[in-house]
Amino acid sequence: MMLLTHSHTLLACPPCDAFLRLLDGRPVGEQKELLSKWNEMGTDEPDLSLFRPVYAPKDFLEVLINLRNPNYENGDSLSFRTHLGLIQVPLKVKDIPELKEFFVELGLTTGQLGIDDSTQVPPELFENEHVRIGQKVLAEQDGAAAQQYIRQGSPTALRADLWALILNISSQPEDILYYEQLKTNVIQHDLLVDSLIYKDVKLTASNDDYYFVFEDYLYQVLLCFSRDTSVLGHFAYNSASPPKSYIRGKLGLEEYAVFYPPNGVIPFHGFSMYVAPLCFLYHEPSKLYQIFREMYVRFFFRLHSISSHPSGIVSLCLLFETLLQTYLPQLFYHLREIGAQPLRISFKWMVRAFSGYLATDQLLLLWDRILGYNSLEILAVLAAAVFAFRAVNLMEVTSLAAAEAVLADLSTLKVMPLLQIFLFATVT
Amino acid sequence: MKIGTSTESGGGSFIGLLSTINGTLNRMSVQTIRNVFSVETGYRLSDDQIVNHFPNHYELTRKDLMVKNIKRYRKELEKEGSPLAEKDENGKYLYLDFVPVTYMLPADYNLFVEEFRKSPSSTWIMKPCGKAQGKGIFLINKLSQIKKWSRDSKTSSFVTQSTKEAYVISLYINNPLLIGGRKFDLRLYVLVSTYRPLRCYMYKLGFCRFCTVKYSPSTSELDNMFVHLTNVAIQKHGEDYNHIHGGKWTVSNLRLYLESTRGKEVTGKLFDEIHWIIVQSLKAVAPVMNNDKHCFECYGYDIIIDDKLKPWLIEVNASPSLTSSTANDRILKYNLINDTLNIAVPNGEIPDCKWNKSPPKEVLGNYEILYDEELAQGDGADRELRSRQGQSLGPKGGRSRDLGRTVLTTWK
């Protein structure tokens, strides 16, 4: 099974000792068992010892580092314009003045949830009015207004509804029926990819302080997700292509090609963390599923496919590195010198949209802004802001491992003040 | 100066963390505590000695005595005609119904049977009065399962059986609020520095303890303690027990989840009610507590929330476990002990038990004032903190104020 990327680099699947079929019909007895255990698949321990995740973020980073534009001649001489980071593809990224304009609502004079709702601030100053406006937006079901509103953050009680409004999810009977059909599909057929999902959940979410409670929801969502062919629709605007498999004996014959897995998305290590935070908002499985699917086809797919899109992972990496090199040159240079290229540390944060690294309430405030600005660039800005925040400690380290240690624990960070200070309160 | 510590089996000790304080440190077992306060030994604590238990804490921390005191407290309020004791049309207390229906066995056996027969399909939970960590607890749904505790003679005077065999039987809450399909309970820490006037503090960093197994009220699972009992001492022997998170959630996670899925008002109301029942339980035992000025105590409150978002007081522990099951746990308990001692022994100085027990705000650490009777009676309107988390820590009938904010409490 091979993963074809935009640049045709191949990531090989680790070989399995036993021959495992990609797709198998389930015997009836097993179907009944799975149906009865649908709500507690976490306790069902299939033998996962043969499986390793197909790839992890650091493997993906190696691919990105090797991307080159064959038409681009850099010149041999180094100048102050030379990009010293890992990404060597010359995409256009925003600088701080442009970011300030783009993220104008995060400015110092605008009220924010995540800053102006803290204990010391009387709620009359901002919070009460903001909540009132949010309720009005919801009452009028105004999606565009909701998207504008949520740039200043969403009150916890309104967030689930606001996100559904912005993502255009309304949970009609046909949506619930569609989910049930996917569930039936899971019961009736066993996919090889299912084992990858089990493994991923067990390795990540099950050990997470915030998300372990929702383990069973994650299986329910992801197993259905991998069978959902409607997800293939997003490849129309994704420069990646879904991997294909061929019916036995018909290798290469297009008429016998099927997309595998059916939704065209092979989960990588940490994939389940895209779903986990959503469990804090939605506890009804079909709604949770719809929200996740929409978040994936709008945003998350860009974090693990190669493209030149400004919200694509390549641009985010370049944006991060450029921000650091331009505005924190001493830190950037120091880290480079000790063999700790900053992107090597921040890549995993961005690929996962910081899920599993930030406290959940902070993560949700961050994802509010992703929805509000319809862009993932904020992930790169936050990554740079974190480095800026811990710059003093980072300047003192002398190895990659030590740098990793300084940045290992982000769970106490407050994202909105960090972003605000980095964009609007730092002398550039 | 001596700081007495008390350990029960399975509990931790305070010893390692008191290195900043001068003086000798004594490990006192519960038996020693009894001796210290026993009339017979004639031992008197001196002014510079304080102890971390009240002599008769069992009035609150033994399951049968707690229920007895709360029942007595409610009847007293009813007799006084207090609005707190108001009942609804079914005869249930509106504001003081926070302990599940409970009977003492074997004393109340006949009363219990009467109640049981009214709803024969209900489940009841049997708990030994004097044990901890989930030991000896089991569920029943048939009278035959507790034949042992039926009274032998029908006369009104009977010999009290030894306390070892005394049990309480409570109506089992078979509709707990489930998250991720799992049952959980809340462990909250409450520090009492004096009972009369009542001054108590609530630790902000409580946690939820989840079962490792999905909840099922089915009768076939009544014997499966991994489904029903949330004690870590039990759960950690389960197959799926995870040592990284230990099946624990912070209370702030719970709050975020409930606000996001149920709304802010009902969540605020739930937490208000939790504070209310803690204060009421302390008020219930305050009259019978030996309010020795050498004493303070940090209790572990166990609370269960049902699926209608009503909190229930399950029990109060005098020696909550101070051992840690995870890394986060260790940090939490370290801070708990640190903050507790900062309040009980201000400035790390040699204590004088005659002090007014009013620590300055700065030393509270992660504690917040839950109820201060002196302040409540002194000035009806002004209150101490109102935390961001919506804890309206006002008295009954008051409005909480802080920095110009007014919050109407849901308390009468």
From TrEMBL, chain A:
This protein is called what? TBC1 domain family member 19 isoform X4
Note the Gene3D superfamilies from the entry: Ypt/Rab-GAP domain of gyp1p, domain 3 (1.10.472.80)
Q: Which SUPFAM superfamilies match?
A: Ypt/Rab-GAP domain of gyp1p (SSF47923)
The organism of origin for this protein: Zalophus californianus (California sealion)
Give a Pfam family name. Answer: RabGAP-TBC
Rab-GAP TBC domain location is: 153-374
| Superkingdom per UniProt | Eukaryota
Q: Spell out the SMART domains in the cross-references.
A: TBC (SM00164)
UniProtKB/TrEMBL annotation, chain B:
Which GO BP terms sit in this record?
Answer: microtubule cytoskeleton organization
The cellular location(s) given in this protein's UniProt record come to: Cytoplasm, Cytoskeleton, Cilium basal body
Keywords of the record: ATP-binding, Cell projection, Cilium, Cytoplasm, Cytoskeleton, Ligase, Microtubule, Nucleotide-binding
- GO CC annotation: ciliary basal body; microtubule
What are the boundaries of the region Disordered? 382-412
The primary site where this protein sits is cytoplasm
Q: Known InterPro entries for this protein?
A: TTL/TTLL_fam (IPR004344)
One molecular function GO term is:
tubulin-glutamic acid ligase activity
Q: Which reaction does this enzyme catalyse, per its entry? A: (L-glutamyl)(n)-gamma-L-glutamyl-L-glutamyl-[protein] + L-glutamate + ATP = (L-glutamyl)(n+1)-gamma-L-glutamyl-L-glutamyl-[protein] + ADP + phosphate + H(+)
* Family of this protein: Belongs to the tubulin polyglutamylase family.
Assembly and binders: Part of the neuronal tubulin polyglutamylase complex which contains TPGS1, TPGS2, TTLL1, LRRC49 and NICN1. Interacts with PCM1, CSTPP1 and LRRC49.
Name of this chain's protein:
Polyglutamylase complex subunit TTLL1
* UniProt source species: Callorhinus ursinus (Northern fur seal)
